[in-house]
Every structure is written in C-alpha cells, then in structure tokens.
Amino acid sequence: MLRFLGFRLLRAIVTIVLVVTFAFVVLRLSGDPALLIMSVDAPPEAIAAFRAAWGLDDPLWVQYIRYFNAIFHGDLGRSMRDGRDAIVLVTERIPATLALTLPALAIKIGIGVPAGVYAALHRNSLADRMVMVMAVAGFTIPSFVLGLILVLVFAVQLGWLPSGGQESWRHAILPVITLGVGGAAVLARFTRSAMLEVLGQPFIRSASAKGVPWAAVVRNHALPNAAIPTVTIIGFMVGSLIAGAVVVESVFSWPGVGRLLVVAVANRDLAVVQCILLLVAMTMVIANLIVDLLYGALDPRLRATRTAGAH
Predict the structure, then answer these.
(1) Domains in the chain, ordered, with CATH?
(2) Span 169-187, pLDDT tens digits
C-alpha cells in the first residue's frame, strides 16, 4: 500500500510541475504584460522600468528558476494590476465558486446516477429512451449556450430569476442548473453503460439462478461493480470544480475564480493566472488520488493486488 501511495504521490508531483511549467512558458510567449498594463503609448523608459521591476527583462530560464524557488518558499507572486498577493486574490473568490459548483455537483450525482441505473434496469423501454435522449441533449449543448437559453427564458421572457450577479441565492439558481445539467447527462450515460456491462456478466446470471431476489442482486452485486467507472467520472468532476466554472461564471457575471481567471488572462496578470492553474492542478491530482484509493474499497481484487505488490 505504501508503495502504491508513493508512486501516486510522485506522479502527482510530476503532473503539477508539468502543468505549472506549461502555463509559465505559454503565458510569457503569448504577449508582453508591460504593453497591456502600461499601454503601447507609454514612454519606453516607463515600460522598461516596469519590466525591470517585475523581472520580465531577465532570460526566461532565470524567471523560471526564480518562480519555482518562490513557490517552494510559499510565495505565489503578486498581481501586476494592484500589487496584492495572488493567493489572496484567488482565495477571496473560492467561496463564490464553491457556492455554484458544490450544488451543481450534487445535482450531477443526484440526477445522473439514479437516471443511469434506472435506464439500465429498464433497457429498451420508453423510460430508457427518454433518459438517453435527455442525456444526449444535455451532453451536446455547450454550457454557454444552455446558460444563454436559461437567461432568455427565465430572466428575460418570464422575469422569474435574475440574469446575473451575486446579490442573493436566487442569482445562483440559473448558473447552478447550467453547471449541473451537462454533468448529470454525462453521469447518466456512463452509469447506464457500466450497469449494462455488469448485468451481462455470468456472476449476475448465476446469482439469479440461485434464487437470489433481483433487488438483492442489483444492490449487492451489480451496483458495487458498476460504481468503479462511475466513481472515475465523479472524481474527474470533483477535480474540475474550479476549471468547469470558467464559462458559466462569465455568462452570469458571477465573481468567482473562473471569472477572475478570464480577466487575469486578458490582462496577462501572470501571477494570478499561475496561481489559479496551480490550484486547479492540485485539485485534479488530489481528486484522482482519492479515486485511486476508493478503487480498493470498491473492488477487493485491486486491494489484494496492491497488498501482494507491497510484499
């Protein structure tokens, strides 16, 4: 088990380093922050002074080493816009993002998993076809399109809900639905496929032939085995809670981390962008590590394999 955790931890560290390196290089090759913040009409001396103050006139490899050295000392940099610590700007926005993504995750799991199980248990029925039609529709419609449709119908035409902002809980309803629908559709499709594959296995037919009630077969045999691929998708959704809110927060003018990322990228606010990407990478890595540990609890064969490997 320790060997397994050590390998996963090493892989997580390498993944985070690669993500941060990629972001570091791409951001510095995509444009000069000095020209965006100071404007192209600024005196050359002012632009040069700005670059020197922020270390942008150093070679790229020097900036890279300095950046990683700062990370190891807990310094994620300061915003070029207002001089505040990047980590402070990002953490201020996290509660707003979680206020959308956590209820949306509950909708994804609470609707997607039961719908997929029900569709699999009633294969080729009218209910199965309806679930799959809605799942395909929810999966294929881009989140920004769905968000605009919801705004047009419920905010503009009916006037029931606000179209944007964060003044009250009513402002969160449309963005939460927008985030939740697509994920519920994905979970419904994957859960149905996983259940159908398990229901076709010999051990299911054997349990039924022994006279075990069908409800017990589904509860004790089908669901635990079908949970493994479903947990993988849920883990990915948990890991992408922050990244998945970028578009929706922009559509609904929600002051979360996703909207901050869009603004920071447009302004080439390097420290803020890098801080957000580091947060996203760490969230994804931690979620994947938790999923790997859950595999052992869900599948005794994997747990036995890891234990044997440790010895």
Answers:
(1) 2-72 (no CATH), 89-310 (1.10.3720.10)
(2) 888 899 999 989 888 988 9
